[in-house]
Amino acid sequence: MPGTVTVGLDGTDHSLAAADWAAAEATRRGARLRLVHAWVWRPMEALVAADEEVQRRWATEVLRQAAARVAEGFPELPVSTEILADEPVAALVAASAAADLLVLGSRGHSTLVGYLLGSVGLQVLRQAAGPVVLVRSPRPDDAARPRDEVVVGVQDVRESDPVLGFAFAAAAAQGTSLRAVRAWNVPPVVVWGGETMRAADDAGGLEPLERKRLADAVRPWRERFPQVEVVEHVEMGGAGQVLLSAGARARLLVVGRRSPGRHDLRRIGAVAHAALHHAACPVAVVPHP
Questions:
Q1: Which letter, b or e, does each residue of 75-95 get, where b requires 16 or more Cβ atoms within 10 Å of its Cβ?
Q2: Which residues does the UniProt record annotate as the domain UspA (predicted)?
Q3: Do 81 and 112 have their domain in common?
């Protein structure tokens, strides 16, 4: 049974860019495309906005325009549209649970990640049960930049399987190489000893140890996706900075996010935060335990 790629639309150019990217991704996956718009009639808003029927027509038109745009570029792609009768965050979080992938628009570069995503996108990103891809509107200079890699950040190698699995599948579907990136620094004195020292000694030093850790994490996925050419990139420095620098040729940047618990819904992680701020390509945020 084919999977589903879902796009949350809000009528902006950013969400139309998300629909374009999602349509191409659904085609690569052999999946269905589901276009959704969350809308609830609020009678009090009629004092300052259009009446219920006008608002409903506007919501319907958002979906119609996006569907027509997708049909023009991808005429064979199965597409459905749906107005979700719920608040946007709740509706999109529920939609993410029923989809293989949720795609949202992003405003691009900004000094504040909340502004970059919008409050709805940021809350959905924190709570979504599955992968979410953030897509910004293309810039005039994008066509001149080579984009020929899927780039994935691998920091916590013990919990990286969902992130690596998503990245390898994306590289296979897109027919590109994959660059697995791991940043490292000299560990603090309080943890420099015992197991860490022995492991570094066995590997021949700290950098060889980090290369071994990355190679061990990537190896099972190399075996599952032998058609994907892999570059293992290990570099000393801050994780976010190293990932962005190594991802200069990325057509998709993949980062992990710890699945939310009761007390950590506000956190998306420093590396994901940096990618969402500064990456020039779509960013996939994949939850892991």
A1: eebebebebbeeebbebbbbb
A2: 4-136, 149-287
A3: yes
Q: Look at residues 70, 103, 138 and tell me which one is the last residue of a structural domain.
A: 138
Q: Which residue has the tokens 């649970």?
A: 97
Alpha-carbon distance 143 to 162, whole Å?
Answer: 31
At 80, which helix (H) or strand (E)? strand 79-84
Nearest partner of 260 among 116, 96, 106, 136, judged by Cα? 96
C-alpha 283: how far from chain center: 4
Nearest to 38, CA basis, from 15, 61, 8: 8
* Structural domain total, the chain: 2
Phi-psi region of 231 (alpha: psi -120 to 50; beta: other; left: phi over 0): beta
Give the C-alpha separation, 204 to 219, whole Å: 20
Predicted confidence (pLDDT) per residue in 46-64, tens digit = 444 557 788 888 889 999 9
Phi, psi of 184 (to 5 degrees): -145, 155
Task: Judge whether 211 and 263 are in contact, CB under 8 Å.
Answer: no
Beta partners for residue 32, in sequence order: 4
User: Which backbone phi and psi does 29 adopt, to 5 degrees?
Assistant: -85, -15
In the chain, the amino acid numbered 67 is A
Q: Specify the CATH number for the domain of residue 193.
A: 3.40.50.12370
Extended beta strands in 85-145, E state: 101-106, 132-136
H or E stretch at 230: strand 230-236
Over residues 162-202, the pLDDT tens digits come to 999 999 999 999 999 999 999 988 765 444 455 555 555 45
Euclidean distance between CA atoms 280 and 138, whole angstroms: 9
Amino acid letter for position 28? R
Range of the domain at 256: 143-288
H helices, E strands: number in the chain: 9, 10
Q: Which two tokens stand for residue 197?
A: 């020292």
